[in-house]
Protein 1
Amino acid sequence: MADRNVVKHKGSMRLPSVCTQATNARSQTEDVPVCPQSGAVGGTRQDPRLALHTPSLQSRAQTCLQTRPAPRRLLESPGFKRFLRGFCEFPAAWDSCAFAVRNTDSAPACSAVCLHQAWGSRLALGRAFTRWPGFGARGRLRGSGPQLPGVQRLQGSPPELGGQAAAAAGSPRRLSGCRLQRPADTHCPGSAWSSGIRSPRARWLWTALSCLLGGLEGPLATRNSRPNIVLLMADDLGLGDLGCYGNGSVSTPNIDRLANEGVKLTQHLAAASVCTPSRAAFLTGRYPVRTGMASSNSMNRGLTWLGGSGGLPTNETTLAKLLQHRGYRTGLIGKWHQGLSCATRNDHCYHPLNHGFDYFYGMPFGLLNECQASKTPELHRWLRIKLWVSTAALSLVPVLLLVPNLARWFSVPWSIIVISALLVLLFFISWYSSYGFVRRWNCILMRNHEIIQQPVREERVSLLMLKEAVAFIERYKRGPFLLFVSFLHVHTPLVTKEKFVGHSKYGLYGDNVEEMDWMVGKLLDALERERLTGHTLVHFTADNGGRLEARDGDARLGGWNGGYRGGRGMGGWEGGIRVPGIFRWPTVLEAGKVIDEPTSLMDIFPTLSYIGGGILPQDRVIDGRNLMPLLEGRVVHSDHEFLFHYCGRYLHAVRWHQKDCATVWKAHYVTPNFHPAGADACYGSAMCSCSEDVTHHDPPLLFDLSRDPSESQPLNPDNEVLFDSVIKKIEAAIKEHRASLTPVPEQLTVFNTIWKPWLQPCCGTFPFCGCDKENDILPTTP
């Protein structure tokens, strides 16, 4: 029982002289407040590593050391150290592997036995082995041998070597069958594979691992460790808009099927409450403030023009680039919204193809109301009204200067009248040349680097993207592939096919949600048709919460955030950052499982790195955490202790996950002011401000989300005895977090986000841009 508890607590012990690249090491002892649910007294946590020194584990390790000695020069070789370093990517193994690795006299085979016996995971051993000299960067033998197969985790009880794990790793009868002296003498499964490895040391270790992982008498249970990956992201979808999250008025059978056949997360959080920074965090696994994709200007919290000069920096590593380096074919279908060009119209430095995608088909910006000529303008609506009023007022100046001449009161030089009129005309042209042609400048459809529709035909674009997504699956069905489908749904203007109009009980917005669900179903059908369902990880989510301010008269055009307070653009309120999180991988993840632990969109980056066999960048902070141990049930708590909720560059709220008693505290230091008074959103300005019309709280508003998820009952020292200790803990975390930030160029400054004619993508001769090549170009293989 003690060993079983070890697996549930993931330690962060740094492996001496071997795992020197480990990061995010935390102290195992810290003072914590009293748990409000249980009333248990807080104090020093027990170090789970102490439980490792059990007679059972020590005896098995000693037996291993005595029966399998090996040359010391092999143990000390750089190649073997790189092999063991691979385990640094698998924190769940650290505690269990501590004793084995600490015994430096142990042979590689014996270390592998002890690692395997404690963890029970073939997957980690297979991936770590690809770091041995003799293997290429993509896990393929440098010789003529076949591709290294993925290694499947054994079913059993890893802590005490239950089931097959005990038989494979702890049985002396099997160990005695492994002849490790010479590869030629081995009778282990996979010995034929070792003939393709040039390095003698690599063949020696491959032979050992073949014996340890497969055994002599048992079959080697394998699967491809690099599945296909399909990421589905909705635009401005509320958490409560789906049937699997409690909506009864909108029908979403296909998304609900994903949840029933996979794992559903109930505290899945976006790193920002607007799309550009949220998507940047999703792609990079880092807070937007680290990448420069957070704005200090409330008006330009996202990219507003394709002709702007800001975007996701080219030195950032995206999940697509990571998997591309691992041999994945990567495609993005749909919305990008991470910038396009830097210095010239065609340099496309921020283009998806420069961020790891092999193929792109979609809108580099996204949908706006302006993409439909009949809709009310959405982009900077109130600014445009002010510009019209200013232009009208300034146009009166030359008229008033003309009146004295016409009335013959006194003479005003005609040069002054003409100059004033020209100045008014220049002012009008300076803003109308951009805001007057938003549909032509921003509503563009591209295939790779080529513009194929300008402006886009909004009534057809969704079906074209669905066709491209299905074609991508069919083209790369032999895999592995990464397909990121970034839906244009459910952002305004809610372009919906006629057959779905009036289909839901929630008006046009509900119709648009149901059309998106239909598209999800078509993608799932394509996977089933190609027999890829069991070998494909599908993840469905949204970039941020529903937009409450979107209205057309009394009709609501935005989503429902499931009873959580706030919505899109509102800093740290739950309604703006809590998004759907559904994972389906039939051969790996338990169907119908629900996890109520804080997770983040930033977690997708390290999770896909783990699944695809990639290596996380070591030269930067990765804020996401690998979700696979949580999704598979190997751990019961999320790795996140603190999550920081920004509004632009301003920290609005902090979440503390107190794991020892399953409490989630949340402190709000800044909240937006809703208007009109008593409203639930910022209806007067279309989006809440981050820094201007806000309220600063000292002490902060504190909520216990585990008991008050709607954030309706703020705590204070009078009604919560732990108030002071919780705030103290959170403020210490803020200090540590800010110390980890480094200055980076801000991508969303006013200059970077304003429209620049020389950067405007154009199909034709600028400014006479326009084309429709969709019917003339057939899809091509990138």
Protein 2
Amino acid sequence: MEDVSSQRSGQSKDVSSYLTLDESPPNFIPIKLEEHEPADFSTKDLILRKAREVCTCSHQTITTFFCRLFPVLDWLPRYNIKTQLLGDVISGLLVGIVAIPQSISYSLLANQDPIYGIYTNFFCNIIYVVMATSRHNSVGSFGVLCLMIGQSVNRHLQLAGYSDDNTGSSLVDNSTFSNGTDACDRSCYAITVALSLSFLVGLYQILLGVFQLGFVAVYLSEPLLSGFVTGSSLTIITSQMKYLLGLKISRHEGVGSFILTWIDLFRYIQNTNICDLVTSLVALAIIVPVKEINDRYKEKMKAPFPIELLVVIAATVISYYFNFEERYKSAVCGSIPTGFKKPTLPDVNLLSSLAVDALPIAVIGFAMTVSLAEIFGKKYGYAVRANQEMIAIGMCNLIPSFFYCFASCAALTKTLLKESTGAQTQVSGLVTSLVLLLVLLWIAPLFYSLQTSILGVVTIVNLRGGLRKFRDIPRMWQLSKLDTVVWWTTMLSSTLVSTEIGLLVGVCFALLCIIFRTQRPRATLLGKVSNTDIYEDQSTYKQLSSIVNVKIFRFESSLYYANKDYFKTVLYQKTGVNPILLAAKHQRLETQASADIGNSKSFSNTKFDCLKAAKKRTEGPPADARPPSLDMHTLILDCGAMQFIDTVGLSVLKETRHEYKEIGVQVLLANCNPSIRHRLREGGWAGDTDSGGGQLAFHSVHHAVQFAEWWYHVQQEESKDEITECFGLEGASRGHLAQQPCSEEEHL
């Protein structure tokens, strides 16, 4: 029997033998694009060029450097007082009013005294005005960050031997302050841990910005961040429930703290302080409806009603006049000092133990800041530099750490309030700082009688945005089931395990989902849209026509080591042809036919070799030994969705071409991007037949189809000419034999 490749009438001939321009018919026009000469790339030259640019010292270079590092030098000289000042002042005042109760309540969440929350919001706003590129971000204490800070602080308090019972909030005098436990009470050691943590967070963020590592934020997808915020919100609500109920229970940390806290809440619920409970319920009944009205009619209202501040003021007055602290044993904020404390240094002994805790706080902080900055930058049409934003928020954490502040970032609620009330520039941040300065200098002691249950209510009410994400789950499920799974995984792990581990689990799971998507991508066969050169998925669209004897296969992912096996499996499944099994069957039938032919008698005259070959083509093997016919002569691989192929992917393409060639099917590539064409050319995927990577990798599917049809037409013509020539030789041989008498042996 003939070789396996001859089963399709000579289709095993080299494709390159039909690729010359002279033989191309009018309906097929080869396309040959000339590539640009590759630019000489030298790492050494690149480093030297960058170094020269950085080290060049001139007036223009210095001015540009400082304007980029301090964007306020660029926009402040162009500030229009008439058109921008009014909106900035109103917005800054309203944000400052909202920041007062939030600063105090979030201090409680961060396990700090109220004064430190006001310090944090005051200093970070001033620094952010000078260094930010965003015009609308409002930085300050953020609930999720305060939760993570509080967990780290509480863990170190326990390691230092401070119990939860020693909750006195008295502040030591600055003259006796020491960064250790000897001359430092619980409150002092708590802020020492927090400011050391803030120092590391700021240092991490500045390094990320300086080394242009802002791409790290891209691994925190929107579903991941949303799930993390929602999970953290549930944890925050759980941690604040003891204040709403007036219970004195220990604060759990680590794995399972969410469940353990709820167990303790139900265990000691009989000790609920009725005064705190009633006060909390009344505050919730007042704040929540007003906040909902503010949200619903925010477009019609010039400014939202400051219900939180009014409730805080009213609760403080009522608690003071009715003496809730002594009569009902309600927990209150206590003494809040005025003025500023002398700067201090972070405790170097704590830096090593806080290094790991600072990393997720830094990542979440700059991710929230950069994402909010980019959202409003796109909305209002101004440029935001992500790396500069990281440096800015890093400075907002590094410098204030010397002034008894904990870590901060852009706060969602205050940013939305700032944008909706007409803020034009970061001058509004200066106004917010002035409002907080008034509190620091004169107003802070007036909050002595403010119940901690009211602070817990303020904290919980501001988490409504995170809880509203549950309403978006059905819509998210319709859009992307995998993103919904990422959301639930991150949310549940952040809630039930721990905040830091939940973030890590969410990132790892999201990356695994990406790998899963590329490891088992969508693969389809394409059909042609009538009277066009457009080819689309046959399983998705109707009324698509298949190309006769041509299969067009699209693999919607890059081809690399992780999906190489799936590529071949789905290719065989979609085309219905497994070349390995088919070649093995051909080989088995060929062996059987050869054995049958060896037992029969054949002519020995070499003049009849061509005649026997022609008869073999026309008659074919016996029915029981004939291999199954193929319904295709060409396989086209649409590489338009492939971004890259690695060396394993290149080997798979070469193996695929070789396997299909063995059964008489040619393999063509289409829509390859330049990097893939370069890899094919360098790797020689087509062997010696197309070492230049030319006509076997086409620029469009339609062009590849045209070539396949022309190539099949040429093959058919070649086969007909060969058969005609052989039959002509057969007639001539018969005439010659009729003129010569045969011997007796030949006759027999």
Protein 3
Amino acid sequence: MQAQRRTLVILLSSLALFNAVSTLTFPTDSFDFLHGLADRSQLLQTEDAMQRVLPKLLNKDDGEGMMRMASILYNALVAKGKRGAVADPALPPFINITKDCTDAPWSPLSHHGSSTQDGEASIPKQVGELDVAFVSSLTDISRDCLVASLQYITDLACAPTETYALRMADASGKLESMVTSLNIRWFGSFFSCRDVTDIPVTIDTSQSLSFDAQYCLLTTFFRRSSGMDIPFQLSTCVPSTCTSEEVTNISSVAIAVLRRFFLVQSFDVVSSYCDYDPPLSAGAIVMLCVIGVLLLLVVCGSVADYVIRCKYKNEDDSFVESDRPGVYEPKSDSDFAPDQPVTQTKTLDDEGASQGNETPNENGPVAEDSEQSRASEKEILRDIGKEESSVYSSSLAKKWSPLLAFSVYLNGDEVLKTKNETGNPSLNSVYGMRVLTIMWIMYSMHYEISITVSLNPADYGVGSFIGQPITDASMGGDTFLVISGLLVTYWTLHRLKEDGKVNWLLFIFHRFWRIFPTYYFVLFYYMYCFMYTSIGPTKYILDESLDTCYEYWWTNVLFIQNLHPYFDPVRSRCMGWSWFVCLLIQLCIITPIILAILNWRKIWGLILIGAMILVDIVCTLLISGYWGLAVSGGLEPFNNRTDDNPLGDYIMTKPQTRMGSYFVGMFLGYMIFYEVYKQKRLNKWLVACLWVTSAIVGILMVYGRYWAVNGDPWGQGLQLFYLSCSRIFYAICVAWCLFACIHGYAGFVNRFLSWKFFIPIGRLVYCLYLIYPLLMIRALGGNEVQMYVYDLNFLYFYIPNLFLGFFFSFFLVLLVERPFMKLERLMYRRGLKD
């Protein structure tokens, strides 16, 4: 009996949310809905009716236990809008759940009350009273939540002068248009709801209680007889004394009422989210301390850098500061013309003997070594076989070198310079390729995040010719794999040629150190601090992702996020977009084996590279065939093995199905290092044919999914061929583009990709990849008005966010990435200066 009474009391409490839930059926104001519900509640006037209707409504069979609660419901509703209705006087006088609504001429009850011979309204001023302590003891709803909810609903129904109640009702979500375009999120007004504060509870005089309005987002599912259930989200503004669990319970009973009275049979409340103001956690405090320490180191390092440079400059009057920060040049003497600046460099041979080196000057004649310099009093920095006289080689700078590693002056100069680190100008095109590819990937991320909270998600995507490259920018990851394979092969073979050996443990450590400081910093900031900077209706999306982080954070730390849980969708993982970082680390572990064999026997190394590409194709083919995967999520799979996990990650992020592009890049690195086809020029007609073929194949690979969805149906064989080979073909097209740029077959393409403007921007790509989704979640999470997505509108929103992304990436590089790169150089007893 207690369980049955509990359900009925929840039904009574659900009145506090009817103003929001009723919009599923009635877009009219809440007064009309209450009056209509009061008319229907006449069905509950008799014992027979209550015993017949209520058990069916709530699947209960104890009429006696429900009659008492139904009487309370009847009194609360009927007396507000039913002419001549009289409340049940037998209710215990504990808390008045209604107010006198007849005194205000604008009250809706002034138009519904009947008059007696004395002109008095027949509606009693005290309609129904409720033993709240008794009710609270039978339910999972706290006394404070129940009382505040009753206060809100009575003020809403009785008094337009109680503007807070109208504002709360108005801030709740309403049924909107464009449902056929999957506009299934009705956010209402997040900030208007939260503006309601400090409302006193007057219906309960036994305690002093007040409440603020809190914004809650209900998630309901429309149950379909076939196919996936459709989620709907509806906001409601409720008293802050109610928890998320209590709002879920109340809303579930409200949906039950709608199901019975209004034939809404297919809806079911799953959850509600109200936790928009979480308390500061211990993890957040620790992370804020880490950020504070890093900022302090940056400030101190910059100040120390400035002081040391000033001291060095004052002590060495024979040197003046050059255009390069921290590098000093000798003053002009009588042997040189005043208008012909000179530079001085020093080099050391392998035995450490000092020798002069002539350096061409862009503005004048060749500069010669000066015997009068004080280079003997300075230590020489070495970087890629070069040493230069520098302030950072002084004994004082060496003493404070760990602190100077955080200098904004030093790191900012290296980030913004337009000379690439490779020292090979022919590789400048790599920077342009990086920047254009990251812009493509960020545009796709922008789409994926925006579309989840847009008005028309069904109108944009794979069905759009323009939208196809946006929705399938995963091939941009293959571009980065080709570039990574190219560079690691080229420079490792270069090191092997110079030194004859490579410490492979240090090789792996270097790749790990290059990635992990920034990655861990963003990961833990995302887990513990980001929630406090993101506020808005869609904050629940962030919290759902954080729940995964709290459970599986260790997979990110170990760089196996793309492997465990193995088949989970990418979006459901912690920082799901960071799977590419994990993939690079995994490929880095097997790279030394390939490179060692390639250096030992070229032919065996090339065979092994080809074999790894073939393994990629075969693995993708077998996995796709077993699971019956289609080329697009818009197509039906070829078997039912994925029914339990239709959005699962089967081939998207796995190393065995994504490594082919990386090994294509390694093959390209081998060709460039050994200067294959550099001495013998290719025929211009062959070059033109290769360019045309590459362009056509690349477009076919990117647009394959579009034609599969919108063109003639593809058979399973053709789809398997596309899934297993499309990325390899695309990677070969990218490799040809880079090969042509490096060997002089690209013309204006190479001039554009080698534009020096791309070089400093290219150094921000890694940090941009990590933080851009955070900026998007923050920007869209604060929007209570959803965006209508179309091409031009989408572009307007993307461009400023991209600039913001590069802006914050620059600060992340100065705060974390570059300082830790400098610390690694100090570990190897190399200087600070690149």
